[in-house]
Amino acid sequence: MANPKQLKVTLLKSRHGRLKNHRACVAGLGLRKIRQSVTVIDTPENRGMINQVSYLVSVEEV
Q: Which of 3, 39, 49, 56 is 20 to 30 A away from residue 31, measured at CA?
């Protein structure tokens, strides 16, 4: 089985003052601090969370 594609997601802007479901998406991706990066598997669920908070994060393929 091939390794699943992964995405490196970096939080660029603060979560404070954002919509409750947007804060939940950031937390669901595992991001806590500004400029923190996490690696997540490229799934439709993770893509949906990233798309919802695209104005807060940057994404790179790993």
A: 3
Q: What is the mean pLDDT of residues 24-37?
A: 97
Confidence class for position 3, pLDDT limits 50, 70, 90:
confident
Nearest to 8 by CA among 33, 35, 27: 35
CA-nearest of 38, 37, 41, 34 to 5 is 41
Tell me whether residue 39 is in a domain: yes
Q: Which amino acid is at 29?
A: L
The per-residue pLDDT for 43 is 95
Q: How far apart are CA 27 and CA 5, in angstroms?
A: 21
